[in-house]
Amino acid sequence: MDIKILGPGCPKCQQTEKVVRGVVAESGADAQVEKVTDVMKIASYGVFGTPAVVIDGEVKSVGKIPSAEEIKAWLEP
Amino acid sequence: MKERTKLLLIAGIFLAAYYIPWSHPVIRQSGLEAFMMLQEYAREHVLTCLIPAFFIAGAIAVFVSQASVLKYFGARSKKVLSYSVASVSGSILAVCSCTVLPLFAGIYTRGAGIGPATAFLYSGPAINVLAITLTAKVLGWQMGLARAVGAIFFAIVTGLLMALIFRKDDAARTSGQIYVPDAGDKQRSLLQDSLYLLTMVLILVFASFSRPAAGATGFWPMIFAYKWYITTAFLVILALMLKAWFTRDECVNWVESTWGFMKQIFPLLIGGVLVAGFMLGRPGHPALIPEHYVQYLLGGNSLWANLFASVAGALMYFATLTEIPILQGLIGSGMGKGPALALLLAGPALSLPNMLVIGSVMGVKKTATFCAIIVIMSTIAGLIYGSFAG
Description:
The complex is a heterodimer of chains A (77) and B (390).
Chain A: E1 2-6, H1 11-27, E2 32-36, H2 39-44, E3 52-55, E4 58-62, H3 68-75
Chain B: H1 3-19, H2 25-63, H3 66-70, H4 79-88, H5 90-93, H6 97-109, H7 114-126, H8 129-139, H9 141-165, H10 190-207, H11 219-225, H12 227-245, H13 248-280, H14 291-298, H15 303-315, H16 323-332, H17 337-346, H18 352-389
Helix pairs in contact in B: 2-8, 2-10, 2-13, 4-7, 4-9, 6-7, 7-9, 8-9, 8-16, 9-17, 9-18, 10-12, 13-16, 15-17, 15-18, 16-17, 17-18
């Protein structure tokens, strides 16, 4: 599973990355978490607000810090 | 931070501590001015102006739905709407450039195109609530108003010019699905939300109501005499609204987002005030930079002074709100009103680091055009404002 956190480095984006990494480590899911900070790459996903979470190419959340429960639900196969 | 940067930083601080002639009278005076200016901000501006403004910014970030604004930036939305929304939405969407840039890239590549994107890029940092209120409080309401009106007007004209100059290569943009933040569930009507924001704006206005000129009679001195009663009345109304219309979670979110802005902006502002005080001093008190330099470069309302202010503002990086103490120091040292407005209009929207990012999104040619348009228009606006305000 390939998880991307989109955000140019604002505090909210960093917090999102922390929450996602925490949930991934806790659930033991087989996933790579990658932070995308380049604004053109962020725009190429069609995302109009950051932080955003993209899992396997699918945009899951935009413009907010997702809750741990939401992330757990996305990680389930 | 890389280890090497840390080393360079520490070496720099060491060399400054070692070589700066701290006992020199000018340096002593400048150091004192830095803290006198900090005290002026702490006493005059923080409690009555900045704190309410932070709560308003926090409320806007939490309760105003971003989705409702962003839908006007889609590829198929009406152009008139895109431009008008872009020019004012900075007050809703952006307090720092870290939200502006991704959104700009999105609008440019996937959405409404270069015109609305550049309009938004300009208006975003220029007309946010915090910047306008503090400008009006510190530099006078005329300057605050000129800044707000100028920024909205500039945003539209810049966007239109960019769209006109580069009308051909808009086709190269990709189309595709766009994702905007969720709208979220709304429990309140638009009227309730507006009343809530209006109450906070009124609290801000009355709390920071300044003392009218001595000897004035009639309406304004009367308001000034009762301002704390009026403010308290509005605070009670606000408390009732919060109790009746808002859930506990929403109030917690509101306070958290307000606290987020404060954490982000206060340290920058304190730094900015200290630097401005050290370099320029409070009005009427000289500091490190001699006043005749400032008067020579930026005094009066000549074309040269306005142009210099625009270009300097465009290149310099101002962290959120720090442009205000710096300008206060400059005006106190003899900068003209026109050049001051020119710097306010060109400054926060552009900076050297910012230009590099914009350049990576839309290319060098468009970025250069964008900067040139803003510098030229700021110069003209400065000339016009300077000839009115003197």
